[in-house]
Specification:
The complex is a heterodimer. By secondary structure, chain A is of the alpha+beta class. Chain A has one domain: Ubiquitin Conjugating Enzyme, CATH 3.10.110.10. Chain A is 23% helix and 14% strand. Chain A has a 4-stranded antiparallel beta sheet with strand order 1-2-3-4. In chain A, strand 1 and strand 2 form a beta hairpin. Chain A is globular, with a radius of gyration of 15 Å. By secondary structure, chain B is of the alpha+beta class. A 6-stranded mixed beta sheet of chain B has the order 1-2-6-5-3-4. In chain B, helix 4 runs antiparallel to helix 8. The chains are: A alpha+beta, B alpha+beta. Chains A and B meet through helix 1 of A and helix 7 and helix 9 of B. Chain B: This is Cysteine proteinase. Chain B: It comes from Pluteus cervinus. Chain A: This is UBC-like protein.
Chain lengths: 155, 260
């Protein structure tokens, strides 16, 4: 019997392929059940008009009981950078409660994309988190290993 | 107190293979403390042991699920008992939908619970039906155990949604005691793994599952050394046995009668 994790990811992928992604979100790569890539763009008027970001999901065998590891993809040499946002570090790590303490197994990959899209859409000022440099210097490779402090529980 | 119990139980197996006699549990507490006297009271009243469950914030749901399934072992008509439980779960479908849950996101968890119930009547590939030992193994399996716990969390959330008018005054943040809206309470205090259950969750789940639950509070608070029992009875069958839980501050385990 396939694992819960594989069954759920297969179901999510099938739904994305048959019904498509929400507006502004596109599946770039899902060759396996370990890493998926999406492009994400804020539609309409926003500080990020015209910018397309790449969002990376990594799944462990306990997904969806445990949250996916989600971050913006950063490839400096290819000019791929994380969006400038008070909750997004320059290494792509995101401070959002739904990716940590408020992750729920009823959420899905698409639900996360939509939440992060609206996090960008509602941004008032493009700036990095105040502790960006310090965090990035010592950050673990996997953002799930960071215990973020959420001071704004709207995301 | 709360921290010390969590520290000693958070690294254990999800579900203990062996029962822990109350006389052993007693050693966790200071001599002559109210806790010890409360455990002595339970022993005098026919309780003998607990089955320890990991202190990871899911202990209420895990203890509840284990005890709910363990009762199937002694059912004289297992086929019928299994069928009744399966139809109870199927009966939740419309309510889960109204509570906003998409079947695709919970179907796998429900199936895990159903498989476990069915195994009490249907032999597996080795020809054996579920027994106590194999049930413990299911609960020690990280993914199966968590899947069952999460399904019960959804049932709890669904019930709070259904009864929100009555429940709303009792829904609060467990740390600040600030009132919480039913939506926020469900999202933050129930639908997330590792968040402990308080009375509203216990009442909701017990109501939904139509069972009797009795919780013995070994909380060190009483001055008369007597244990407070909170009884929530919802079983339709008068002879139905209760799910017995032992509460120590911040933690639940399965409580057993009889010989350890």
């Amino acid at each position: 019997m396939a694992s819960i994790s594989a069954k759920r990811l297969a179901k999510e992928l099938k739904e994305i392929q048959t019904e498509g992604c929400p507006v502004g979100v596109n599946l770039l790569r899902a060759d396996d059940f370990q890493t998926w890539l999406f492009s994400i763009e804020v539609m309409g008027e926003s500080l990020y008009k015209g910018e397309v970001q790449t969002l990376q999901f990594r799944f462990d065998s306990n997904y969806p009981i445990s949250s996916p590891a989600v971050q913006f993809l950063v490839r400096e040499n290819e000019g791929i950078r994380a969006p400038i946002h008070p909750h997004v570090y320059s290494n792509g790590h995101i401070c959002a409660s739904i990716l940590g303490t408020e992750w729920s197994p009823v959420l899905s990959v698409v639900a996360v994309c939509v939440t992060l899209q609206s996090m960008l859409a509602s941004c008032k000022k493009k700036e990095r988190p105040v502790d960006n440099d310090r965090y990035v210097l010592h950050a673990p490779e996997n953002p799930k290993k960071t215990q973020f402090h959420y001071d704004d529980d709207t995301v | 107190m709360l921290n010390s119990i969590n520290d000693t139980t958070s690294q254990r197996a999800l579900m203990a293979s062996e029962l822990t006699p109350l006389s052993v549990l007693r050693e966790d507490f200071d001599r002559e403390s109210v806790f010890q006297k409360q455990l002595d009271f339970l022993q005098k009243n026919g309780f003998s042991s607990v089955r320890r469950v990991r202190g990871d914030g899911d202990c209420f749901y895990r203890s509840f699920a284990f005890s709910f399934l363990e009762q199937l072992i002694d059912e004289p008509d297992r086929e019928f008992a299994v069928m009744r439980r399966l139809s109870l779960l199927d009966g939740f479908e419309p309510s889960l939908k109204s509570a906003g849950f998409d079947k695709d996101t919970y179907q796998d968890f429900k199936e895990e619970f159903e498989e476990c119930i069915k195994a009490f009547a249907q032999p597996d590939h080795t020809g054996r039906v579920m027994n106590l030992q194999s049930l413990v193994q299911v609960f020690q399996d990280e993914m199966k155990s968590h899947a069952i716990v999460f399904y019960l969390r959804l049932i709890t959330s669904m019930k709070i949604y259904e009864d929100q008018e009555n429940m709303a005054p009792f829904l609060m943040n467990p740390e600040t005691f600030d009132p919480m809206s039913p939506t926020s309470f469900r999202r933050r205090q129930i639908e997330v793994m590792g968040v402990e259950a308080d009375e509203p969750q216990i009442i909701a789940l017990t109501n939904a599952m139509k069972v009797n639950v009795e919780v013995a509070y070994v909380d060190g608070h009483t001055t008369s050394d007597i244990v407070k029992f909170v009884r929530i009875h919802n079983a339709q069958d008068e002879n139905s046995r209760s799910i017995m839980l032992l509460y120590r501050p911040g933690h639940y385990d399965v409580l057993n009668r009889g010989k350890p």
